[in-house]
Amino acid sequence: MVISAASAEKKIKRSELPAPVQTTVAAQSKGATVRGFSEEKENGQTYYEAELRVSGHSKDVLMDPLGNIVEVEEEVALEALPASVREGLLAKAASSKLVKVESLTKQGKLVAYEAQLVTKGKKSEIQVGPNGKPLDHQE
After folding, report:
1. Rounded CA gap, 130 and 88, in Å?
2. What's the pLDDT tens digit per position in 8-17?
3. 22: CB partners within 8 A, 6+ apart
4. Residue 117 belongs to what H/E stretch?
5. To the nearest 10°, the Cα dihedral for 22, 25, 29, 33?
6. Residues 83, 63: contact at Cβ < 8 Å?
7. What angle do CA 72, 68, 129 make, to 5 degrees?
8. Concatenated DSSP letters for 39-87?
9. Average confidence (pLDDT) over 89-112
């Protein structure tokens, strides 16, 4: 998740989620394993994240207090990516090791693919657009 420095995240229990968020979580977690919940504050707004495991991969769902889905990050196998996206990520990664790729969906629209890299033991992230091209801003 790309959160600004002005954000704070804390782990919470399912029972601490607002009722509308619990309803969304119930729908989103069908067939999934729930790994945990967190409450995040960003620029004065409160969001809730459900960390799920679906068919062996991670899926994080970020919701507003009304239970509306704001963002979904879902792990994608490198070989399952469109060729243009895979090539774009690999070109940006250069000699770094790609350890995880996620699709990033906001307001129901695929906006980017994000890859976690390891370079000489240090972790970092890169993003490309849905077409594999560099983005003009970080999503």
Report:
1. 10
2. 789 999 999 9
3. 14, 67
4. strand 109-119
5. -70
6. no
7. 30
8. EEEETTEEEEEEEEEETTEEEEEEE-TT--EEEEEEE--GGGS-HHHHH
9. 94
